[in-house]
Amino acid sequence: MKQIQILFLALILVACGTAAPTQAPPEPSQTPVVIVETVVEKVLETVVVTVIPTQVPTEVPSATPLPLPTPTAVPPTQAVAEATQPPAPTVAAAADTSGGLIPVDNAFGAGWFVDLTRSRNDFALRCQLSREITFSVKPIDPNITQVDFYYRIQDRSTGAVFDWQNAGRMISGANGSFTIVFSGDDVNTNFRKPNAWFDYQFIGSSQSGVVGRSEKIEQQVTYTFDCP
What we know:
The chain is an alpha+beta fold.
């Protein structure tokens, strides 16, 4: 046992003696190398790059404006038609306080009558100053030998319109005209209203029947119970 230990020791010593010597590190250079660290300021600077877009964005309005209405031109044919239309019958003027007759537009004669007149624009049931009203008309057609006077009442308060009533024949005159004097109490008792329109119409006849009618003359004469 002892011999084995001596032999192992001898082997170790032999190995140590034959090992190549370790090469010494090179000696440092006598001239020192100075490393200068250059700080480049440009690296530390912040480069600001302005990007110019090639296309300007379109601003979108918040609401789309409504288109303005386009004025409509009146067609020439329509303008000519309106210009050639006959004028509408005009409303009679206010009551003539001088006692003269109030003329009514001949257009209300409907081609059958002319010289339509009346003595006033209002009359009443119980007013002595305006109790009567006189109507006059002249036929154009010589076949008209008789003229009947028709009337109706429109209640101005309620809007009710009553049936037409025949007030009888008008009296013929020397100049070919026909006249009737109508009184406030000549209105049918069933149709008397304290505030009403008195509408009227002339109907011309011959011995064989009706020849022609005037237009209905409406809302030109007022009828009341007491003085207007």
